[in-house]
Amino acid sequence: MSSLEIRDLHVALADSPEKPIVKGLTLTIKTGEVHAIMGPNGTGKSTLSKAIAGHPDYVITSGDVLIDGKSILEMEPDERARAGLFLAFQYPSEIPGVSIANFLRAAVQARMAEGEELDASGYYKRLYSKMDLLKIDRKFTSRSVNEGFSGGEKKRCEILQMAMLEPSFSLMDETDSGLDIDALKIVAEGVNAMRGEKLGVLLITHYQRLLDYIVPDFVHVMYDGRIVKSGDKNLALELEAKGYDWVKTELAAV
Amino acid sequence: MSNTDTLPPADETTDVNPVGGIDQAVGDFQYDVNYEFDAGTGLNENTVRYISSVKKEAPWILEFRLKALKTFLEKPMPTHWATTDLNNIDFDKIRYYLSQGQKPKRTWDEVPDDIKKTFERLGIPEQERKFLAGVEAQFDSEAAYSNIKDIVAKQGVIFCNSTEALREHPEIFKKFFGKVIPTGDNKFSALNSAVFSGGSFIYVPPGVKVAQPLQAYFRINAENFGQFERTLIIADEGSEVVYMEGCTAPKFSTSTLHSAVVELVALKGAKIQYITVQNWANNVFNLVTKRGVAHEDAEIKWIDCNIGSRLTMKYPGVVLKGKRARGEVVSIALANDGQHQDTGAKMIHAADDTTSVIVAKSISVGQGRSTYRGQVHIPKHLKGCKNNTECDALLINTNSRTDTYPAITVRGDTHAVQHEASVSKVNEEQIFYMQQRGLTEAQAMSLAVNGFVNDLVRQFPMEYSVELKRLIDLEMEGSVG
Fold first, then answer.
1. Does an H or E element contain B299, and which?
2. Tens of pLDDT, residues B289-315
C-alpha cells in the first residue's frame, strides 16, 4: 500500500506569492481509496492539483507533499509523474503533429530503464484493449493529441492515458466538466475498472453528479483554501441538497 | 605530379590550416595537411586559370570562368536586403581549390570527444564516423557509387561529377549549363561559376523512370567534398528521377564558405525531385543558388532541410515555363544559437495553368534566427495560375527570432493565390502537460518540435526522416534549463 500525504499545504501563484490560494490543507490518500473534494468555484481546488503536480505557475509557500513518506516538492514535474502521480487535466493541451500512439509510447518508454526496449506489439495490444474499454475508436491513435477533440473526447483521452500509465495516485480535475451524460458514464466506467488496491484517486468536482457514477469512499468540502468538512458519500448528497451556502453558514457559526 | 611546376605557386604562408578566415573556435577542426594541388588563398585571375588547367578544361570553360570572376568582383554584396554578416566573409583568406584525391589526415584520437559523442548519438556506423570526422577519406562509398552508376547506366542514365561530364558529355552539358541560373544571377552564383569544382551531373533519357533515388552522398564521399559544387540535372521528356544530397551527420567542411549552384531542367512531362538534408558546422557560410525550369506538364519538387551553419541563404526556385507545369518547395529550417537560417522559395510563373506550392517551416532555438523569404511572380498576360504558400515559424525560447518576407506579385484576374503564415511559441502549458506524463522537459520540447514538422518530415525518405527526428532531439537538448 502506498500513500500520498498532503501536509498543511499553502499554495500561491508564483507571480503573487503574498496572496495564498490554498491555505493549510491536510489530506492523506492511500492506494485503494477514492476521495472526492467538492467546493464552490474559486476555492483553490484546481490550484491544489496543479501545485501537487508541480505546475510552474504555482509556488508552495509552506507545507509538504509526500509519496510514501518521501517529499516530492524538490522533484521536477516529470519526476513526480514517474514516481506514480497522474493529473487528469481539466483543460488538456493540444500537441499538434504528435499522434496519441506516439505520445503514449514516449510516455511509457520514459518509465522504462535506460537501454530497455519497448515491446511494440505488446504495447499496441494493451493500448487497443484500453481503448475498447473506453469505447474509443481505434482510428484515434493516429490523431494528434487533443487537437480538434470535442470536450468528451479530450476527457476520454485523459482516462486512456491514465489507464496506460497505471499511476499510483490520480488527481482528476473536474473530469466531469464538458461531458454529456453518456460520455460521463463511459469515463466513470473506465475509472471504476481501474479502481483497486493499486490506485488512489482524488476526484475534484463542483457537482455531485460525477459521484453518482464514481462512488467515493471519502468526501471533503473545500472552502477558501482549506478542507472544512469531511465525511462519507452522504456528505456529497447533503451538500447537493443544501448547497454550498450551508457550508458557509456553518463556518460562520463556528 | 608533373604539372605542378607550370602552375602558380601555392600559398607560401606558414598557415597550416586550409580553412582560413572566419572564427573556427566552434564546431570545426584545425587541419594540418599539406596539399599538393592547392590554389592558395585569395581569388584572382591566376586562381581561376589554375583551377581550369588542373582540370584540363576546354578553352570555352576557362572563358566562362574568367567572365564569371569579373562579374563576381563587380557585383556588390547583397547587404541592402540580406544580413550584413556577409561582410564578415574574407574572400582573401579562403582557398578556392584543393585537388581531389588529396585527403586530410588525422587520427581518430585527435577528434574532439563531443563530436565523437554526437556521431554515436546519431547512430552513425563506426566507419562512416571516421570519414565524417576526416580521419578516413572513404569507406565503401566508392563501391556503392559505382554500383548505382552501373545500374542506372543500363537505362542510359548518365550520373557522374561535373568535371567528368564536361569531358565526356560536352554536347549535353554545354546546352543546359548556366541557362537556368545565369552567372550574373547573384554575387555567389558568379563566384561559383568562376571557381566551381565537383557536384553532380545527371542526364535521364526520354521516358526513363529511375527506380531508385540517386544519392549524391555516395558520390561525394567517394571523391572529396566540394565547397563550390556545380550540379546539373536534366530529365528528358517523360522521365522521372529523385536525387538526394547531404546527410544529417554534422559535416565538418574544410572551408568556412560553401557556395553551390544547382540547376534542374525538367523537359516536357518530366519529374524531378531534389532532396537535401544538410547539417553544417556552425562556422560555415552556406550560400546556395538552386533553381529549376519546368517545361510543359513537367514537375519539379525541392525538399530542403537546413540545420546548422552560421548563415544559410537558400531559396530553391522553379521557373514554370511550360503550360500546366508544377513546382513545389518543401522546406524545414532549424536555427540554433549563433545560427541564421535565411531560407525560402521562388516561384516564377511563365505559362498558363501553372501551379506552385510552397510549404516552409522554421524552428528558432535559443538565440537562433530564422528568416523566410518567398517570391511568387504571376504576370498579367497569363491565365489560370495557382499558388499556395504556407509558412509557419516555431519559436522555442523567449529570445528566439523569426522574420517573414513574402513577396507576391500577381497580375491578371484568373489566378488563385493563397498565403498563410503563422508564428507560434511552444507554450509552458504544453510542456507541463507532457512532463506530467513523465517526459523530461527536453523530451517534451523535442516532441513538440517533431510534431510541428511532422507532416513535412513524412515526405522525406524513411532513413532521412528517422535521422532527422534524432537530430532534432539532439538539437533540442541544449534548449532547456
1. strand B299-308
2. 999 999 999 999 999 999 888 999 999
